[in-house]
Design brief:
The protein has helices spanning 17-27, 49-60, 76-83, 95-111, 131-139, 150-163; strands at residues 5-10, 32-37, 66-71, 87-92, 116-121. With 168 residues, it is an alpha/beta fold. It has a five-stranded parallel sheet, sandwiched between helices. Strand 1 (5-10), helix 1 and strand 2 form a beta-alpha-beta unit. The protein starts with a strand and ends in a 5-residue tail after the last helix. Belongs to the bacterial CoaD family. It is found in: Cytoplasm. Reversibly transfers an adenylyl group from ATP to 4'-phosphopantetheine, yielding dephospho-CoA (dPCoA) and pyrophosphate. One of its GO terms (molecular function) is pantetheine-phosphate adenylyltransferase activity.
Amino acid sequence: MSERIGVYPGTFDPITLGHMDIIRRGAKLVDRLVIGVTTNPSKSPMFSLDERMAIVRREVEGIAGSIDVVAFDSLLMDFAEREGAKVIVRGLRAVADFEYEYQMAGMNQQINPRVETVFLMADVALQPIASRLVKEIAMFGGPIQRFVTPTVCEEVVARVEKLGRRGS
């Protein structure tokens, strides 16, 4: 029997408790979960790719299962094929997420019908969390500790201070 490999892609800028929930649950569905860290050309990241890779690796260390963190800069379906994945894991927070993800899943299926997309609903308490909003709150000096781990919180606050944007 072949190993069931899944890919959970994202920018993870920064990784949130919502991401961690999907990783924990996704790791139970496959033999190996590959967290694909990418750069989205339409987003301007707070952390470099190398920083995000290191942060994600550190944050997933204690999660049960076989989890790898891999950078990629290609079409998701090409990355999934390279990793030997048969499943793409995606987290859904709200109806707006579903519409976008449903469209992406359809496009991805046209590109590579051998890979299925599996949607996991975010835990109700974590549904409003989005990396973009975490960064925005931090830039205005707001509290983000309910949305990220303590270490990630420290890193985001330090980065905001370094950028000189806190509370401005």
